[in-house]
Design goal:
The chain is of the alpha+beta class and 518 residues long. It contains 16 helices and 24 strands. The strands form six sheets. It has an eight-stranded mixed beta sheet. It has a five-stranded mixed beta sheet with strand order 11-12-15-13-14. The chain has a four-stranded antiparallel beta sheet with strand order 18-19-20-24. Helix 2 packs parallel to helix 6, helix 8 packs parallel to helix 9 and helix 11 packs across helix 14. The longest helix has 18 residues. The structure holds adenosine-5'-diphosphate and magnesium ion. Magnesium ion binds next to helix 2.
Length: 518
Amino acid sequence: MINTLPPAVVRLIAAGEVIDSLASAVRELAENAIDAGANRIVINIWTDSFTIQVTDNGKGISYSDLLQVALPHTTSKIANQEDLTNITTLGFRGEALHCLAQLGKLTIISRQGSAPAYQVDYNQQGECINLPRETAFAEGTTVKVTNLFAHYPQRLSMLPSMPQQIRQIQKQVYNLAIANPHVSWQIYLENKEWLKLWAGDIITQILPNLNSTDLVSLDYRDLQVILGLPDRYHRPRPDWVKVIINRRVVHYPELEQTILNSFQRKLPRNRYPLCLVHIKASPSQMDWNRHPAKLEVYLDQLQYWQTYITDTICRLLERPIQPKTTRQLFQVAENSISYSTAPQLCAIAQVLKTYILAENSQGIYLIEQHTAHERVLYEHLEDQWQIVPIPEPILLHGLTETQVFNLTKMAVDISEFGSNTWVVRSLPKLLVDHPEAVAILTELSQQEEMSGVMAQLACRSAIKNGTELDLATMQTIIQQWQATRNPHTCPHGRPICLHLKSNDLARIFRRNWLIGNS
Ligand code: ADP
Ligand code: MG
């Protein structure tokens, strides 16, 4: 449903020239298509007539909304001031279509569901020139604007040369595609196909010299990092250091610097990494209203994100991903044993209720049960942060504002419940039925960073030293531990395993002595 925003809300929104170039017209229309749920977007550009046409397969616009969409400050995306802190769409100001109607000649064809398709032409005030006419059209929307800037000779004269504008459009489309990899794009220039990107692996389509095997990525609930392995790919400029916040590429110098710092001493001199950081921030944690084109945004908890990004990049750079890399890594890291490529371990016995004694063809192993299990749980949490609803809500008392915020960040369902009391309706899966759930949750609320939360949760949920274990349980633990990405230490850095190699044992017991025949 389309609303006209109240004047008080309009004043809060960074006003400004939303559309100052062909590229920004493309951006606004494509963002509308993405907001409408489209996964196919076709763009036509005719430079002679300054015409842009964007067609999508999104949810379409209803007859009654078509009458209003181009009026000033009409949007279906927010309704009041409160919604401004909860923006999940790319658009929200209700300005773009009105602006396009003012700057050129605007026509929309749209069809919603099984309703007929309608076509509407708008005048410069954004009013319908005629009532919507029925026409034939697939589900979705086409927005066409012709003769952009025709009535604004001064603006026309300020535009860069057409080849430059075309480059701006290309860059714009690439950024939209990178930030929204679920969308397929076809761009026609003067009726000829110019760019085509399939949904999925957008980066290697844009950079054909890059192999998909040169890229590695790590995905968390709220952060995804994709990077080119520094021994295989780097660039002369930092043009592929990109910060994407809630599906929009933004300019965020502090975070870009964080990325560059994480690659320090890992790249040749004067070379820059390819690194994309996708941040999924809660809409209430940021402010888009600093820049008319939303190219800048302010995130709360900047430091939290900086540490989180640094950690994730380090982890990706350390992590042996493919056989080739694994081997290279282990060649460099002398003395480091690869537990994950070692033959399967077999548990033999428990020692001092603390260590698991295990063997394989390469020797014997003493594995501390608690730290090994902790490592397993930690990586499991990293791969899948699961919050589940609990039947009996938990009450917490006397939390600080930061503690409540930290719990919210973990996606725990927490709300105020009277004075100085909060009610918790969901928990990390490991805490469900945990006898110390309340104490542990309080501890977790003091952790600022997700990695700290996960380490703490893993530590508190792992089997304790001093617990008697049967063989089957021990076998499961060492099997899972052997499969971890980082089997050497627990999340706090303590070693997990003592390995006595069979060669060393042979040396210690002087097995090379020739005594008799055997
Ligand atoms: P905003 O995107 O800030 O809401 P716009 O002026 O860009 O403002 O668009 C106004 C409204 O028109 C949107 O809120 C949306 O309801 C509707 N709209 C625009 N483009 C499309 C589209 N491609 N598909 C469906 N609805 C659209
Ligand atoms: Mg919009």
